[in-house]
Amino acid sequence: MEDEQKKEHKQTIWMLDPPTDRPVRVYADGIYDLFHFGHARSLEQAKKSFPNTYLLVGCCNDEVTHSLKGKTVMTDQERYESLRHCKWVDEVIPDAPWVMNQEFIDKHRIDYVAHDSLPYADASGAANDVYEFVKSIGRFKETKRTEGISTSDIIMRIVKDYNNYVMRNLDRGYSRRDLGVSYVKEKRLRVNMSLKKFQEKVKKQQEKVEEKISTVAKSAGMNHNLWVENADRLVAGFLEMFEEGCHKMGTAIRDRIPLQLIKGNSGELAYDDYNDDDYHDDDYHDDDYHDDDEYYYDYSAEEEEYSDGVDCEPSSQ
């Protein structure tokens, strides 16, 4: 239905030939509340409609706009000033009419009126389409709307995230009275925002922990692969070191036993000058050495014997 409506309007729109001896005077009008890039693009199209264009932009005042369209965020003076700072605009016409007539066109010597081609209902009741008269006299120049951006969209975003913007302004020094917020509402918002910040902080910490776990897991996987690839070599090296250590420990124990036995039998503190002829097997049959586990040492066989029946063969040197 909308496509058919577009085709119908395109078929009925016709244009007079532009003047060639002077700049073409193109007029664009609107409310331009919360001036955004969608507005700027439409004015750019109007400015570039012809090689030599003088762009006039009309803007309705607050009284007309509020009565026919609704309340604006910016005042009319703010909207006028926004337009003056747009580089495509050559002249701003304040207090522009809602619906143009021949008198207004003649007064400002307008050659064409630039706007998108969709019909805009005339809230004043003067016509079904605000631009119906301009189209009928061949002075309408079509432009394209920028999809995805409009003043209504911007206001909707603010309303949707109302609490966030209230807290934003409270943090910037505005009072709750400036924002029209009650005492209870302000406290509730502050508590909710504190909880939200805490949740965000916890989430960031969780992400850091997960990242560290992932790093450790990857490292563990690499170490596991390294162990599998070098298992035989590592085990063989460990056994070799273990065997060598056991041999050294056994030798040291075997060498220290005679010294400990001599020390216990004679009561002397040092035995630097002893030899095998200084003592005999009979010296070790003293009652002091006859405990539950009797101990004997055979020098010829170099074996330690225990009366409990357990034999241990010393490591060969």
Automatic annotation (TrEMBL):
Cited SUPFAM superfamilies: Nucleotidylyl transferase
EC class (word): transferase
GO molecular function terms attached to this record: choline-phosphate cytidylyltransferase activity; phosphatidylcholine binding
Cytidyltransferase-like domain sequence ranges: 27-156
Pathway annotation from the record: Phospholipid metabolism; phosphatidylcholine biosynthesis; phosphatidylcholine from phosphocholine: step 1/2
Keyword Transferase: yes
Function: Plays an important role in the biosynthesis of the phospholipid phosphatidylcholine. Catalyzes the formation of CDP-choline.
Name of the protein in its database record: choline-phosphate cytidylyltransferase
Lineage: Eukaryota, Viridiplantae, Streptophyta, Embryophyta, Tracheophyta
Name of encoding gene: ATCCT1
